[in-house]
Please model this.
Amino acid sequence: MQQESVVRGALGWRGGEVDGARCDQEVESALRAVRAHLGMEIGFVSEFMGHERIFRHVDTSLAEPPIRAGHRLSMDEGYCRKVVEGMLPELIPDTALIPAALEIPETVLLPIGSHISVPIRLSDGTIYGTFCCFSSLPDRSLSIRDLQMMRAVADMVAAQVEAKVSSQKIQDSLKARIFAALAAGGPQMVYQPIVRLTDMAVVGVEALARFVGLPQQTPDRWFADADAAGMRGELEFAAMRNAVRDFFSVSQEGLYLALNISPKIVMGSDLVAVLEGCPLERIVLELTEHEHVEDYDGLYRSLARVRARGVRIAVDDAGSGYASLRHVLSIRPDIIKLDLSLTRAIEDDPVRQALAAAIVAFGRHVSCKIVAEGIETDSQLRALRALGVEHGQGYLLAKPASAGDVMRMTGRA
Ligand code: C2E
Ligand code: MG
Ligand code: MG
Model:
């Protein structure tokens, strides 16, 4: 864990920021630029793996190149090992002038007339592989300057290789951590009451995930980590299933259950199957507006299937400065949840009041309920009531608690 955070810190990594695909793209564009600049027929990056070298990236001007990315060759074949071991020079403008090059079968078979090759050395001194370019004809214009450029690019390739390996390590460790949380039956769920502000009756609850394992971090960080590890769906569905199971086992009637889900997980998943067996007319799906949505039509269609079965949709964190208007227009939610940044200091801030009032008026027009999040003080509660906000959630009203405790609190146990 400590190692993971050291690596993250070193990379300034914030979840998926250093991704392997981007590292590969950088290497490929550098390779293309160098090969084109040298005017050589083939350029490649190879990785040494035991007795073999693997061609990780190949760039070529030939229609039928003799090597392609993914090919493997024995370390004993070709130039790479001999260059690294000093048996061949790095810069060979004309192979016919180098007896050791002529001894290599590929020199004649391919043929190879000119060759330039440098080791890719990682920061701990180990050799990852080689960065090479070659052509069938000799090229006497190749110079020490070209070699220096190859060395500079090899250093850049080494940095990208290390970034990719580190990012892979982080991903593996995130994955292991999330697997462990799931294997332990997590995440545990707590439920925060949602209250009608006119008579303070509890009308529903929002399910919120809690993680007992390390590192101690907020649930949104856990979900972001799951995203970076490619496991967001697994974690979100586990949270939904646990919430549904625990809540409906103690709550027979009445209260609705709001479940958080990210738009990208909604798309392409069968929510009806995930929510199988629970009273769908008591389910609200909260879609955060923090996430960028590429395909609103697709999202709308995915939501339509569960909506047709009675599920309601809320836009979460509205007013937090992301895409709320777009979300609201495209999703046509049943509920809009005002972000806690809007509730904070609403009693003293005419701008926040104006925005909340506009959303309330909009809600009335389109029959959309408004829930204010994060109510912590009496003065916030009074201000929100005065603005006509009908529902609220926050520490002043009730903190998140177990399903049983919420039922006892509301007198429904
Ligand atoms: P959210 O969906 O906007 O949830 C509301 C957050 O506000 C919760 O934080 C809640 O504990 C907190 N909160 C409630 N009342 C107050 C208050 O009066 N003052 C303040 N300052 N905060 C209050 P929490 O539980 O830490 O969750 C943070 C975020 O993590 C959630 O924001 C949601 O985006 C995500 N999250 C939590 N559980 C789940 C889950 O099961 N699935 C998914 N997909 N996301 C979840
Ligand atoms: Mg929410
Ligand atoms: Mg929210």
